[in-house]
Amino acid sequence: WLSKVYELEDYVPSEIAQIGIDLEPLIVKYTADRYKVEYTTDPTRLWYQSAEHPIFSCNLDGLVLSDKYKTLIEAKFTSEDREWGSAEREEIPGMFMIQVQTQLMIMGFDYALVGVYIAKWGIERRVYTIRRNEKMINRIIAMGEQFWDEHVLTKIAPADDPLPLPREFSRIPKIKGKTVDISTESWTVFTEAKEAARLAGKLKDEAMSKVRAELGDAIAGRVPGEENMFYGEINGRTRIFKGE
Asked: Which segments of the protein form a coiled coil according to its record (predicted)?
């Protein structure tokens, strides 16, 4: 919602996101090599807008250069493999499936190639062939157009979805001299939450001090009600750990 309503300043990726960005060319190449197809990553050939549904656009990671195999390449990097299932059954995380189906709708392609590097015990490389799903695409279009009409054109954030983290709002360029009235409801909720967080932090510190006082000069203490679990210092950090 935020990125659709405002022209945001440049996004600063996290460390893991930057690794994915750096690996993207390698993942695209690996995916194309698996299928022995030519491709391009020329930025001028990767951005597209739907003619039929112009609120939808996409920026591809790679485009296959073939009149016979009209398809695109999407590159992913992750350390979480739980939602990446069988390539034969097209099991990829839901948010990526929506992204790829949107790309297929915009491009008019029947399938996409999704390459992923999974960093767990080393690097595992997989390629998924994702087929066009008209039922999902129709739902994406309907929900996207409804979202646009109700929340983008009106600049009203969805009430049933969480807002972005506060730091994301700092990316909105500010207009010099512009002021607005903050609603009583929002300000009251904010100040009450801020005070609750302060009190919770104070209670946490007091409770931790009691536990640390009981530890005294012991390196660890047994956690009550938990078999073979300890709280104390291990590898330079104070935390709960399992005994050997």
From this structure: none
Look up residue 152 and give its DSSP letter: I
Residue type, position 195, single letter:
E
Q: How far apart are CA 152 and CA 141, in angstroms?
A: 15
Look at residue 2 and give its three-state secondary structure. helix
Q: CA–CA separation, 158 vs 115, rounded Å?
A: 33
131-182 pLDDT per residue, tens: 999 999 999 999 999 999 988 899 888 877 777 777 777 877 888 888 989 8
Amino acid at 6: Y
Q: Alpha-carbon distance 157 to 163, whole Å?
A: 7
Instruction: Report CA-CA distances (Å) from 114 to 88, 128, 144, 229, 244.
Output: 12, 5, 23, 42, 42
How many contiguous H segments (helices) and E segments (strands) does the chain have? 6, 10
Query: Which domain does 144 fall in, by range?
Result: 2-161
CATH number for the domain spanning 80: value is 3.90.320.10
* Predicted model pTM: 0.71
Evaluate whether 64 touches 39 at the Cβ level (below 8 Å).
yes
Q: For the chain, how many structural domains are there in total?
A: 2
Burial tier of 12 (Cβ tally within 10 Å: 0-12, 13-18, 19+): exposed
pLDDT tens-digit series, residues 171-222:
778 888 889 898 899 899 999 999 999 999 999 999 989 988 988 888 889 8
